Amino acid sequence: MSRFKGIYWRTFTVTVGMVALTLVLLGASFFALTYSYIMSEKRGELEDKVEAIAQLAVTAYDDPSLLHSWDQTRREMKDILTVAEKMSGTDFIIILPGLNQFITTDQTLETLELPLPEEINGRLVRGEVYAGVTDLGIYEKPRFVVALPARKAESGSVVGPIMAMAEPNAMTEMWGAFMGIFGMTAITVLLIAFVASATTAMQQTKPIRDMAAAARRFADGNFDARVHNTGRDDETGELIDAFNAMADSLQKTEQQRREFIANISHELKTPMTTIAGYADGILDGVISPEEERQYLSIISAESRRLSRLVRRMLDVSQLQSLDLIKQKTAFDLSESMRRVLVSMEKKITARGLDVDVEIPEDPVIVLGDNDLLTQVVYNLLENAAKFAVQGSTLFLGLEKRGEKALVTVRNTGQTIPPEELPLLFERFHKSDKSRSEDKDGVGLGLYIVRTILEQHREKITAASQDGVTTFSFTVQLAEEKGGTKSV
Question: What is the DSSP string of 396-441?
């Protein structure tokens, strides 16, 4: 993957791009508003000045005596315009059409004719004020010009235009200052956005890179890799925690897989070694004909144990693929437990055990798979009888607790250490004592119990204290106060 196509660069580009676009749009709006405001202010300022100068021109028109001493009037008005130009920095032009003369503070116009552009002349003829940027046909650079007609005080007739002109540089000086300030601000904001977006994008992408590296280590068989969470409580922190939880689950699954392979290798190796050893002894003549029957019986027993092991493994595989939620039916759990007790009578009697039974006479209707839950009770009772002390008492009980039915199986034997209790339901798990006493077991009975109950969304608990070991599990009742639950 190209380094410029990653999340880091995408996040960085989008963030900086959005900030830059925002600044451009804001700057364009700001420049337009400030320019319009400055031009409006300048126009108002020039109109006020032109109005004042226009009053002087109208006075000259209305005083007939001034027409016979024009040179003197010209000098006096020129002096007034010069003072006004020095005070305001604005050039003025007074055009006196009746005398075919004009007065101006701009020395470059003294020897030139001044034909007014059509646009300006048309507005003045209509008695309107003109304000705009023009070169008047004589300047190299455009200037901001405000022109208005001078009217006689008595008749109100237009007697000539009065114009004020300002250099564009002077007009836009404040606008240029605004642009400079805004430009510096925009650059500062972009730099801050650059640093902030780069830091944020790096913080967002680093955990993802770490998870990708950890995933690659998983692929190489290293399940110890983890992603360190630096205390983040956002979505990325949740992703890191979920990833680490997945890694823990994968590590546990891998450990269970290895244990499963080791256990099954051990369980298969023992009967296969026994079968092969005695069969070779018979074939080689090492075992006498008188002992052949005895060793053939051992071979037969080990073959059956091997067959049970394979069958139990197939049962486990099938149970894990079942969806019992859709297969639940209502049945009488108390009746099923009585049948299990009857089927176990010979084994219990052979061990010299007594049985204490607390099963209600009335039906206890539960929701589940009858055959599989019956198998759960059978496995637990068989396990209890197998490891109970001879002459002791087994307990099998059933009671209702809220919306659940509670089944309890108890025996008296060796106390199971607390740290070993959670391992009882693992595949092929056997304690040292069970290995010495349980020669026919394959270590899958309790694992099948847990698998069946998990498929029913139920749990089983185990406790062992002072030689008394108790297994308890719950099943959903089908009965309610108002009737029976639908299946």
Answer: EEEEEETTEEEEEEEEESSPPPGGGGGGGGSTT---HHHHHH-SS-
